[in-house]
Amino acid sequence: MSIQTVGREDNHPTNWFTEMKAGDKKTFWACIGGWILDAMDVQMLSFAIPTIIAAFALKPSEAGFIGTATLFTSAFGGWAAGALADRIGRVRTLQITILWFAFFTFLCGFAQSYDQLLIFRALMGFGFGGEWACAAVLLGEVIRPESRGKAVGAMQSGWAIGWAIALGLYLLFFSIMPAETAWRALFWVGLTPALLVFFIRRYVQEPEIFKKTQANLDKAGKKSNFLEIFSPSILKTTILTCLLTTGAQGGYYAITFWIPTFLRTERKLTVLGTSGYILVIIVGSLIGYWVSAWLTDRIGRRANFILFGICSIITVFAYTQIPVDNATIMFLGFPLGFFASGIFSGMGSFLTELFPTRIRGSGQGFAYNFGRGVASFNPLLVGLLSATLPLGQSIGIFALVAYGLLILAALLLPETKGRVLTAA
Question: pLDDT digits over 145-188, tens only?
């Protein structure tokens, strides 16, 4: 892979968008739209969990296992989708993954037992994992190198928007419906992302660098091979990126899956009271994504990961371990969301630059979703540990280990800021 970098730096936060061609802007809106709707479907579960626990008489560990199953299957879905994107194209695979996660989210609303919900949610995870892999690669390949971090980071910020939409639907449905109906309605709305496929089919084209790479492979009589990410020349990158993503996602899911339950059980807040605290976290997340996206092009990928990893450790410790009043907890929600979410802004651009084009989908899909697969055990393990320790302490322990792992991986990986992608 080429290690060529560009000399020009563009630190303006929005030039990357205004200078994009019309077709590339449509690609951006398709990618961020898919991620927003993906986040909406995923985050619905965290709001529904307290009601689902009561409806099916679940233990915390059983509820945590639903989250774990979703994330675990998403690891396989992400790798499969990434490999498929290298074979049949980024755009076509993106459409498949969106339809998949929307359909199975919809089915979750009809579950009549814990086992049914577990199966539907696990199947939803395949599409959830695949969508990010396709969207991040697709956008990363159409953006100029000096702005790749800002653009892909901006796409990543769509997660906070989707989370906010899920919160709004949660407040609406639980205000006008009985709880046993409201949680189902949340999942029924999860079918709406399927509408985005019509936009993608009409307006989004494959990146030129992908087309050139495919032409080169065809000329040589070769096909992309997803197993190449385990070859001697790529293996170190694969291992270290897996550790990086495991750390980022391990910390994130240990926190966000259990925060609504933590606020309602340990902080004794109502549904409406909890929503205000979560909204502060979401606002912090959105701003964190934007600031981190700018910083990853300004100070570099590695430095940004290390900075946000250290700050995440500090804020998680303060939020879950220090005995403070509820007003302080609400205030701490902003930096908690800012750093725990902002850490992801540089992930897509970094992975795009670390893997060659012919196996970029496979490498990026596997690395990101391997991390998600390992991190998938954190909701379950936090639930198990909460049987002997307070939930807040359980969250803090797993988050601390995860962010420490991320910092270590960032120190060992090369800097790729400004790297030019090649048709190889």
Answer: 888 999 999 999 998 899 889 989 998 999 999 988 999 999 99
Is residue 200, in this structure, part of any structural domain at all? yes
- 43, 161 contact by CB (below 8 A): no
Whether residue 360 is contained in a domain is answered as: yes
What CATH number should be reported for the domain holding residue 55?
Answer: 1.20.1250.20
Residue 78 covered by a domain: yes
The answer to whether 126 and 77 are in contact (CB under 8 A) is: yes
Work out how many domains the chain is built from and give that number: 1
Which 3 state secondary structure label does DSSP give 406?
helix
Cα 235 to Cα 238, 240, 355, 364, distances in angstroms: 5, 9, 11, 13
Range of the domain at 111: 21-412
The maximal CA–CA distance of the chain, rounded, in angstroms, is 66
Pair 361, 137: CB distance under 8 Å: yes
pTM (2 d.p.): 0.84
Q: How confident is the model at residue 2, as a pLDDT?
A: 41
State pLDDT tens for residues 305-338: 999 999 998 988 887 777 777 778 788 889 989 9
Q: Does residue 2 belong to any structural domain of this protein?
A: no
